[in-house]
Design a protein that fits this description.
The structure is a single chain. The two termini are 12 Å apart. 32% of the residues lie in helices and 25% in strands. Helix 3 (41-51) packs antiparallel against helix 4 and helix 6 packs across helix 7. It is α+β, with helices and mostly antiparallel strands. It is built from eleven helices and 18 strands. Strands 1, 9, 10, 11, 12, 13 and 14 form a seven-stranded antiparallel beta sheet that branches. The protein has a four-stranded antiparallel beta sheet with strand order 2-8-3-5, with helices on one face. It is globular and about 60 Å long. The chain binds guanosine-5'-diphosphate (GDP) and manganese (II) ion. The site of guanosine-5'-diphosphate has 20 residues, from strand 3, strand 5 and strand 12.
């Protein structure tokens, strides 16, 4: 691989918090709820009063999904809470901020919650699932949707695959009205809601392109009894190769949820993900690294990490990679595989 190609090797996968993703969506005309972001219980209470809404929803801001069904180390159940009484917001926030939230997608000990979203809650009459992904097998973007949204889309995909709808987009031609309409219909939006949903889908697609996303996931993509289509949740991932032209977005990443070792690895353009086993994996190429992790699992072992050196790696990076791995107290064995 040439030096130049090596320069463009992705460093890491950027993920933003829900509030940051929703800000991008709101700025681009996508329908989200009014919200504030706070980091103390006192601010949460003030924000709830300022919103002056019939009902408030409090949401823990961590990158993992499944927050609704999560549990805090304070004992509080649920990373998403609805209340009609703004006074309760302060009490709830006290049991959320500073505690770890454990969900299906976090490590067992959970992830510390530093920020809460305080939003105007809306009634939801129906929850659907909508996402846009950059799909290698389709050579471009794909819309994915299901009328059965809300929590546990993975279960829908496993038990009722016929309820998952896809729409492949030709990146040169862009999204067609007919495709947005068909997706809205497949999601079960009826009457005027169909046009509204199609409109949101098109706006989300334009945003997806504009910000160089690899994934925009909205679950639930819901409707209210008053006849509004609203993005109730938001998860956006970005293409790290686009960092040079998406500086504002990449500047939003505070690395707060990365393990220190992940941030250290990123400094040297290494992709490191910590896992809970004891076998260090030192591999070049993400595909080979994944296959290596699989082989270790299949043979009853557990990887301590996933370290992708990437193509075109230089000597100094290899040195740093060895340093990182040997400094990890979990590591008792190493597997080095270089293609
Ligand atoms: P996740 O569990 O991390 O995916 O968090 P979500 O933002 O998707 O929230 C979980 C669930 O809380 C949603 O599926 C909704 O059922 C519910 N929820 C979230 N926001 C609202 C809201 O404004 N109003 C109502 N009624 N329910 C909400
Ligand atoms: Mn969700």
């Amino acid at each position: 691989m040439s030096i130049q190609a090596a320069h463009f090797t992705p460093r890491r996968w950027l993920n933003l918090q829900e509030y940051q993703s929703k800000k991008l969506m709101a700025d681009n005309g996508v329908k989200v709820q009014r919200f504030f972001v706070v980091d103390t219980a006192k601010e949460a209470l003030e924000a709830a009063k300022k919103l002056n809404a019939k009902e408030i929803v409090l949401k823990a801001q961590i990158l993992a999904g499944g927050r609704g069904k999560g549990v805090f180390s304070s004992g509080l159940k649920g990373g998403v809470h609805l209340t009609k009484d703004p006074k309760v917001v302060g009490q709830l926030a006290k049991q959320m901020i500073g505690y770890n939230l454990t969900t299906k997608q976090t490590p067992k000990e959970g992830v510390k919650v530093n920020k809460l979203m305080v939003a105007e809650a809306l009634n939801i009459s129906r929850e659907t699932y909508f996402a846009i992904l950059m799909d290698r097998s389709c050579n471009g973007p794909v819309l994915v949707g299901s009328p059965q949204g809300g929590m546990d889309i993975e279960e829908v995909a496993a038990s009722s695959p016929e309820l998952i709808f896809k729409e492949q987009i030709d990146i040169m031609e862009g999204i067609k009205d007919s495709q947005a309409q068909r997706m809205a219909e497949n999601l079960g939006f009826l009457g005027p809601l169909k046009n509204q949903a199609a409109d949101e889908i098109k706006k989300l697609y334009h945003l997806f392109l504009k910000i160089d996303a690899t994934q925009v996931e909205v679950n639930p993509f819901g409707e209210t009894p008053e006849g509004q289509v609203v993005c109730f949740d938001a998860k956006i991932n970005f293409d790290d190769n686009a960092e040079f032209r998406q500086k504002d977005i990449f500047a939003m990443d505070d690395g707060s949820e990365n393990e220190p070792i992940e941030n250290e690895a990123a400094k040297y353009d290494l992709k490191y993900i910590g896992l809970d086993g004891n076998i260090a994996c030192f591999v070049n190429g993400a595909g080979l690294a994944m296959a290596t992790c699989d082989i270790i699992f299949l043979n009853g072992g557990k990887p301590a990490n996933f370290l992708d050196l990437g193509g075109g790696v230089q000597e100094a990076q290899v040195y740093q990679a060895f340093k990182l791995l040997t400094a990890d107290p979990k590591v008792t064995l190493s597997w080095v595989e270089v293609a």
